[in-house]
């Protein structure tokens, strides 16, 4: 009788361990294959760093219970998830760019409601050469203009809209405007003419947020419309609120064209940038939705995040060195 109970206990422990292991295994497979089965997974995959941190707990449980096949699978899953996440915390070697330095700052104004004084204080404190704004409304644009933003940035390409769909690019250097990417939200584009460097195309990135199933297609198309890197063409910098993390397949496909994520390159790729305020901030772990993607010829010297009141996104700043002309 005791042997029968022990047999049931062993089988129960085996089943329990596999119940713990299999969801992590499925997560790792989906993450690495890039298969995104539906709207809900596109939201969940953003939390891969947290899943990677929890995976070794399952491995320890399998080892403690001596369930060796499950332990082998749990070990492989832990390694796979760590390989996807940990490189973001290690700085990469930068290319030996010898052109001028360029500081890029990107900020989401959350329907234009960030106090103008706070924005101006951040700009004066950080001194960016190029500023990309998302959710730029006509009122926010007027308030910034009245506060003196044009004196800091004499060149600009602006597409203000009511709600969340507007964006803009401000620059200390001359700009050549290009048509915006208009898929749900407007994503401003311009060429920045920096002395002693080739013209650099900059995009103020802001695809639709995949907050509800109806916006998932707009989000996907907005990301897909972003221009890929051209290692032999003009350098490009994409800066803003991507509404995607490095674990989303669509963003990884963009990176595969040659871009480097500035935070990842600087070893700061695990800095969360959303949510800072609002209902999600009380229930949702922070994830990295805001990025600066740079041409492979551009060196990344530093990356940091800032805070602004009344926005759920952290402004992101990248200190770059451009290739020489």
TrEMBL record:
It holds the Pfam family Exo_endo_phos. The keyword Hydrolase applies. One of its GO terms (molecular function) is exonuclease activity. The keyword Magnesium does not apply. The chain crosses the membrane at residues 12-32, 44-65, 72-90. Keywords: Endonuclease, Exonuclease, Hydrolase, Membrane, Nuclease, Transmembrane, Transmembrane helix. This is Endonuclease/exonuclease/phosphatase family metal-dependent hydrolase. The lineage of its organism: Bacteria, Bacillati, Actinomycetota, Actinomycetes, Streptosporangiales.
């Amino acid at each position: 009788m005791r042997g029968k109970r022990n047999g049931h206990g062993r089988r129960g422990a085996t089943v329990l361990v596999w119940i713990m292991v299999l969801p992590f295994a499925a997560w790792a497979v989906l993450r690495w294959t890039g298969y995104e089965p539906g709207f809900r997974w596109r939201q969940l995959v953003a939390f891969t760093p947290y899943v990677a941190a929890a995976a070794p707990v399952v491995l320890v449980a399998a080892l403690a219970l001596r369930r060796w096949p499950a332990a082998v699978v749990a070990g492989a899953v832990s390694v796979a998830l760590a390989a996807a996440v940990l490189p973001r915390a290690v700085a990469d070697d930068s290319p030996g760019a010898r052109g001028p330095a360029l500081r890029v700052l990107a900020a989401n104004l959350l329907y234009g409601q960030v106090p103008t004084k706070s924005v101006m204080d951040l700009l004066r404190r950080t001194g960016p050469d190029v500023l990309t704004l998302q959710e730029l409304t006509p009122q926010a644009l007027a308030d910034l203009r009245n506060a003196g933003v044009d004196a800091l940035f004499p060149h600009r390409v602006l597409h203000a809209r009511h709600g969340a769909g507007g964006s803009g690019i401000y620059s200390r250097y001359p700009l050549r405007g290009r048509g915006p990417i208009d898929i749900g939200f407007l994503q401003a584009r311009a060429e920045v003419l920096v002395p002693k460097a080739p013209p650099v195309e900059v995009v103020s990135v802001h695809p639709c947020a995949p907050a509800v199933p109806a916006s998932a297609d707009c989000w996907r198309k907005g990301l897909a419309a972003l221009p890929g890197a051209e290692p032999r063409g003009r350098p490009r910098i994409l800066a803003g609120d991507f509404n995607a993390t490095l674990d989303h397949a669509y963003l990884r496909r963009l990176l595969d064209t040659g871009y480097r994520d500035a935070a990842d390159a600087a070893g700061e790729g695990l800095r969360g940038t959303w949510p800072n305020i609002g209902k999600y901030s009380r229930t949702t772990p922070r994830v990295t939705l805001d990025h600066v993607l740079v041409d492979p010829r551009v060196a990344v010297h530093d990356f940091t995040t800032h805070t602004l009141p009344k926005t759920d996104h952290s402004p992101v700043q990248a200190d770059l060195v451009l290739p020489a002309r």
